[in-house]
Amino acid sequence: MELFDSHAHYNDEKFEQDREKILEKIYQSGVTRLICAGYSIEASEFAVKLAKEYSFIYSIVGVSPNDIVESEKEQEKQLQTIEKLARENKEKVVAIGEIGLDYYWDKENKANQKEMFQKQIEIANRLQLPIVIHCREAVIDTLEILKQNPVEKKGIFHCCPLNRELVKEALKLGFYISFAGPITFKNSKNADEIITMVPNDKILIETDSPYLSPEPNRGKRNDSTNIIYMAEKIAAVKQMSVQEIAKITYENAIKIFQM
What is the pLDDT of residues 22-48, one digit of tens each? Predict the structure, then answer.
């Protein structure tokens, strides 16, 4: 059984001491492809570097809403660098992301967040790449931007908030829904309902490592060997085998990332 972790951060400093060892363990566990996600210029560059070093790793590049600089001139530099990274590393950069809106951490720069989101959608469309969306406490504005700025190659709601309206509208727009550790949490009341809402051809799994470790490892540093717990949870809800969910989510990831 092969598994595809559609979103992880091995460019994070939490893996600084044992990155090589962890990545070897991950591959041997059956995770034969994974996406290392950028979120800033530095993280995007590191994601590309790792993707070049490991044949089973691919990368996405982008500036997240929490990594936008204040200066317009510097924002333009960020955008130029992201586009250049994607253009020059076509074999290994498979999407623009993670990008989007986050009103939990910063409510003061909403206008900047929206502008950078839209401009990175434009980059994705120029390069014919999908996008990977970070959405936190910004459902209405995120959906509005996607409706007003159509994404030609669609994309993924990563670590998708368990919000009925978001999932319903995202699916209408043709986006994929990626589930992470929170679907396994004991206090995640509507996880089963949301999982049921997502058709098999639009479902993905991810760890968002090193964050959001699933049960039974909640509170520990996360890594891609834990992807099996998301597959098991979805299999239980959909009354399918874990092998079937692994195959479905693997094939979906291959399709959306145009591999």
Answer: 999 999 999 999 999 999 999 999 999
Q: What is the DSSP string of 185-248?
A: -TT-TTHHHHHHHS-GGGEEE---TTS-PPTTSTTSPP-GGGHHHHHHHHHHHHT--HHHHHHH
* H-only helix segments in the chain: 19-28, 41-53, 72-88, 110-127, 139-148, 164-172, 191-197, 227-238, 242-256
**Cross-strand pairs, 133:** 99, 157
> How many domains are contained in the chain?
1
User: Per the confidence metrics, is the pTM higher than 0.90?
Assistant: yes
Contact indicator for 57, 34 with CB cutoff of 8 Å: yes
Print the domain residue range for 139: 3-256
In sequence order, the β-bridge partners of residue 57 are 34
> What residues have CB less than 8 Å from 196, skipping those under 6 apart?
237, 238
What CATH number is associated with residue 227? Answer: 3.20.20.140
